[in-house]
Write a structure and sequence with these properties.
alpha/beta; FAD/NAD(P)-binding domain; Enolase-like, domain 1; 3 domains; 5-stranded parallel beta sheet; 25 strands; 25% helix; globular
Length: 406
Amino acid sequence: MDAKQKLVVVGNGMAGIRTLEELLKLAPDLYDITVFGAEPYTNYNRILLSPVLTGEQTLRDIVLNDEDWYARHGIRLLLKRKVVGVNRARRMVLADDGSAVPYDRLLLATGSKPFILPVPGSDLDGVIAFRDIGDVNLMIDASSRYRHAVVIGGGLLGLEAANGLAARGMDVSVVHLGGSLLDRQLDGGAAALLRQSLEARGLKFLLRRQTQAILGGDGGRVRALRFADGEEIPADLVVMAVGVRPNTELAEGSGLHVNRGVVVSDTLQTYDPRIYAVGECVSHRGTAYGLVAPLFEQAKVAANHLALHGIGRYEGSLTATRLKVTGIDLFSAGDFAGGQQAESITLADSLGGVYKKLVIRDDKLVGACLYGDTADSAWYVRLIREGRRIGALRDQLMFGEGAAGE
């Protein structure tokens, strides 16, 4: 009997391990599997880092696959090992401890890296990102010893970090370069309601502010933030949440084609057909996805090909964002900004805390932005994805699936 083929997975996060879960359903005995993880933990749910920060959950609560799961499936798990090179000619993966592991198929799931603003003082003690359990532990520790926290970035991660630190008793200011919060997920109307709601909970927002420098005090720890206009605010902790970049260092060093992500085909193969890539490190048809649903769709297709079924195709994803920021329901999908040749239908009830905006073009629903009431979000996504003409539905569209008799 032939020896099993060797599959090596670089990255122990949600995309890589979901691919393995899908593969094990299709072909449980095809490969000897080795997984490299740079962190000291098994696979956990990054989306639930915020409840860990607020204290509602613990690391144990958000673990997706414990050590028993790896052992049960015969997977060799190498934690606290960073892969530093891939020798494609010899088909070897090289780790930072000097070890080398051979592969027949390689899956890159290296995720993304937080972007750190290149301003003076960004390397001070107390300046961190919000990306993994290590960052959360640093934030929890800081909240027990310090008072003033500044979060740079008014996107989803920034708001979740701010909410978590405020829940732990810190005085929190959110600094954002743009004029409204969550500007990639919400339009102006929904963003204004969100800001009012969060201000009522004690968060402070400094919009249209550019960070010029982070200032240090005695002992090399951060003490303040200075803006481009010269104003300074106190800061004992600075959390950078200004976005992420695909982690392509390993792929580039291995000579793979990289263009704002590891470039993959519809079968999730890189330019080297033995090497697959999934998740936030990937660029597919010019798009890098940071949401979970597209990553899981990629995982299914990659697993199909690794299992030698050879029929799956990934053709891209409709990005629909369902967010829960401090108990407030938010949702957006498609082209919710509208623009030329588009018609917007809006319902705004500021007292009831509900805002809905639907965007129609050529008698088709092309975008939706919902705040406070997201019950019909799945229906709206279906209409956008199917691209069917709404015709007689138009008058009932705003009132949901039930009213439309769907």
